[in-house]
Specification:
Methylamine Dehydrogenase, Chain H; globular; 4-stranded antiparallel sheet; mainly beta; disordered N terminus; single chain
Length: 239
């Protein structure tokens, strides 16, 4: 059974895809389920991963583990997620499990940042963001968690990498300082070749707009439409 990530940013896309009878039948025949993150207990900082049918029925907690589990990528019947289980609080490592929550395994020994990730080559390779104490590059990993390549963007902050154009390029969030806590962060989306060349800025937050404040998104996580190939993202701005 195939799994797809689900966050509010995808809602309009999914509803549009299901808007016709042909679209509804296509989704039903594919037997998709949605995987999403839930704050189960704010007092203990317990986040769980749940799955459900496209109509919202048959909700299942597939992690059932105290601590933090967030999923940012799934492929076919596998869910990849970051977790702080078996380590310090909010020290994230990559794990993999079946769609029903079985066969959980640690997929990499590299400490990761809280960042979205994506795959290429039919899920054989993953691009992820290591914790800044480890490296400032994106890591391209195989299924065994081995680092196949590193991609340095040349910016103080880089996160939420998305493979595009057959995995030959990456769209990512880039900042001009190391964090939003430092003035001048000014995040935007950028496009770069996987060899680190050809970086160019894709988005431009309106000059003088202060709607996002210090912590709102100028440019949020990039997401590619699976058939139309356009990029969508969050941006808190005036109008």
């Amino acid at each position: 059974m195939k799994i797809k990530r689900f966050f509010l940013i995808f809602l309009a896309t999914m509803l549009a895809a299901c808007g016709s009878r042909k679209g509804r039948n296509a989704f039903q025949s594919a037997q998709y389920r949605i995987a999403y993150n839930v704050l189960a207990d704010p007092e203990t900082d317990d986040y769980e991963i749940l799955t459900m049918n496209l109509d919202g029925s048959d909700k299942k907690n597939v992690t059932n583990h105290p601590g933090l589990e967030w999923t940012y990528y799934a492929y076919r019947d596998k869910i990849l997620f970051i977790s702080d289980r078996d380590t310090c609080r909010r020290c994230y490592f990559l794990y993999e499990m079946d769609a029903d929550g079985e066969n959980v395994r640690k997929a990499s020994g590299t400490r990761l940042a809280d960042s979205w990730m994506s795959g290429r080559n039919n899920g054989a390779e993953l691009i992820a963001t290591p914790h800044r104490s480890v490296d400032s590059a994106f890591y391209i990993l195989n299924k065994q968690g081995e680092v196949l390549d590193k991609l340095y963007t040349g910016l103080p902050y880089s996160g939420d990498p998305l493979f595009v154009n057959g995995g030959k390029q990456v769209v990512f969030r880039g900042g001009l300082t190391k964090s939003k806590l430092i003035d001048g962060f000014n995040e935007e989306l950028y496009l770069i070749n996987v060899d680190g060349t050809g970086r160019r800025q894709l988005t431009h937050y309106p000059e003088g707009d202060t709607t996002a404040g210090q912590f709102g998104y100028h440019a949020g996580t990039p997401v590619e439409h699976p058939t139309e190939r356009f990029i969508s993202y969050q941006s808190k701005q005036n109008g």
